[in-house]
Amino acid sequence: MRNLLLASGTLAAFLAAACSGTPKPTPVTTTTTDPSPPEPEPAPQVSPHEQARADVQRLTAQASADTLLAPYVGPYGGVPAFDKVKVSGFPAAFEVGIALLLAEVQVIATDPAAPTFENTVARLEDAGRHLERANAYFGVWTSNLNSPEVQAIDKEWSPKMAAAFDAIIFNGKLFERIAAVHAARDAAGLSAEQKRLVELRYERFVRAGARLDEAQKAQLGKINQELALQFTEFGNKVLADENTWIVVENEAELAGVPASLKASYAAAATERKLDGKWALVNTRSVVDAFLASGSNRALREKVWKAFKSRGDNGNENDTNATIARIVKLRAERAALLGYASHAHWRMSDNTMAKDPEKASELMMKVWPAAAARVGEEVKDMLVVAKKDKVTTIEPWDYLYYQEKVRKKKYDLDAAELKPYFELNNMVNAAFFMAGKLYDLHFTEITGQVPVFHPDVRTWEVKDGQGNFVGLFYGDNFARAGKRSGAWMTDYRGHDTFTGTTFHTIASNNNNFVKAAPGEPVLISLDDAETLFHEFGHALHYLLSDVNYPGLATTPRDYVEFPSQVHEMWVLSRPVLDKFARHYKTGKPMPKALLDKVERSSKFNQGYGTVEYLTSALVDMKLHTDPKGEVDADAFERETMAAIGAPPQIAMRHRLPHFTHLFTSDAYSAGYYSYLWSDVMAADAIEAFQEAGDVFDPTMARKMKEHILAPGNNTDRAEAYRQFRGRDPDVKALMKKRGFPVK
């Protein structure tokens, strides 16, 4: 990349001289015997700023001719050209995209005019759009369609990408301009939004090393590049371990499993050329459903161990050494930047908690009650398990006997619910929720815009006045090469500051299990809540009214809050009456069944909370160690013992496959954020309940105006106060989970 910039700069300078219109020297007749030719007239000097502008012009033309970099074309302000993507084209696109981004930055850094918001910060916001599009395409392929070819490109280019962004942070002239705008922000007549953008941009540059000396910058650059490589390695290893399955050859081994699930296992086997057999794929949707219903204890153990040992099998996909290196590099980076630990560095980046101590304090407020509740749950399960001559509840027994207890206590079988949660109905239910709350309306346009896989569906989104808001893509099914879990991403964010309105293009990606051909896809209540959760993230982006993209991303410990609130509407009566209809009879879920669900809503909260909190506490302890020297397996065991983790429950995400932590810095020292967000979510849900209508228009308006639309335009703690009239109360969370409130 650097060589390309040097070469292109030399060529541009040459062309500038050749086309300058400078008269050629006139030949002179002389009688001297000196054979030396006359000295050529020097070419006119080109300033660094002019050179950078020439580079931008040339590279923009080149980038705009590349499908992976070019502005989106077609309807809706342009759409991603997924049908034209060729994996082999990514390296060339990255080469040009990075060169263009750095040239755009150089134009800003070398501007002879005095630094202002418009010629420095605003221009920086506008830089890199071509590369963003290439990265959006590549993100789809690494997350949804991963292959050895994609992995090889990721391995080569992730360090180069890290180096490019470091080059921007380490550009001294650029930072001088940002610092000057920051210093003058109070007297510059900026809007509140612009002033906040300046402050956040300045702080992020400082946090990323802009004030280090040259030797320190070089050291930090090496760390960042190696981290990028290690992140890629970790993700690829976990993906390989997830692309596995357990084959069942005798249907009797699937005793207790509902017919619809067995049919999906058979379909998965057929897809893998295992006709006449059943395949239990190593994904959470498959594993949890089997563990809750399968009476074959030996098979439960086998399935559970396969799932929990991803990345921890001592083979070529083992991640323990990768984890050790990542944690060490993070500790070195934090020390270099002047922070006590990686957690302190990570949480200084505009989080609500601000420091590890506050996050840990919240977790430990909840931990004792959650651990105590597990003891009660296990006691109840042992009573039921005696009939099977089971005297000890193992982790692979928990979900199975939990369902037995649920049936005994509440006369509720989770299998009774699935017939009411047909996937297409639940997708439409989410759209109904968006219409009732925010006056957003979704019209399916599948087949009218390109998609990256035949399973992907698309919708046009408009507001109540018929104005175009954005596009929504849904990719709901598990497949080989697709990472596990559920997530939201965007292919274009909302911004307006250049005079052009860019409308959001958002995507939800789930890993639901496909049904047998011709059969409906029935999902669990938990899956339905996951669908609404991820859709909540999409709504956050679709409703954005920020002008600058740098203010679109909210703090990590805030971003999950609105999505957790949106889970509430799955079991709201209007949604259930209209959409939770039995897939055979078409009848809505009967009130008696819903009453059972509501009575059992606090059931098994010990399990859910401990499973999550162990992962969050281990994450925080791991990243507050200033030395960063760790044996992942030993650290996990010792930390679990130190906090008194119940042996019947494993971490939701064990370290060897904890992709939240080790495929980027995003959730590192930040897994606590789900609990931090859930405190706000539980309190916000109470606000809707107090209004007497889960679709109360006043509360919905406040949710949109204060929580969703502003992005990070204002301090998010203050935004919550505007919504609720006060700070969130942790008591709401304790009540929601059925824990004692002190």
- Poorly predicted regions are 1-34
Compute the number of helices.
28
Q: In which range does the helix fraction lie?
A: 40-55%
Q: Report the sheet with the most strands, covering strand number, pairing sense and barrel closure.
A: 5 strands, mixed
Q: How much β-strand is present in the residues?
A: 5-15%
Mean pLDDT: 93
- Strand tally is 7
Strand arrangement within the widest β-sheet reads 3-4-5-7-6
User: Terminal Cα separation, in Å?
Assistant: 59 Å
What overall geometry do the principal axes of the alpha carbons give?
Answer: globular
Radius of gyration: 28 Å
Structural class: alpha+beta
Describe the structure.
By secondary structure, this protein is of the alpha+beta class. 54% of the residues lie in helices and 6% in strands. The chain has helices spanning 2-18, 48-64, 90-109, 117-126, 129-144, 148-169, 172-183, 192-207, 214-242, 259-271, 284-293, 297-308, 320-336, 342-347, 356-385, 398-410, 423-438, 525-542, 556-566, 573-579, 591-599, 605-624, 632-642, 659-662, 673-691, 697-708, 716-724, 730-737; strands at residues 245-248, 278-281, 440-444, 457-463, 468-477, 487-492, 504-512. The strands form two sheets. Strands 3-4-5-7-6 form a five-stranded mixed beta sheet, sandwiched between helices. A two-stranded antiparallel sheet has the order 1-2. The radius of gyration is 28 Å and the shape is globular. The termini are far apart.
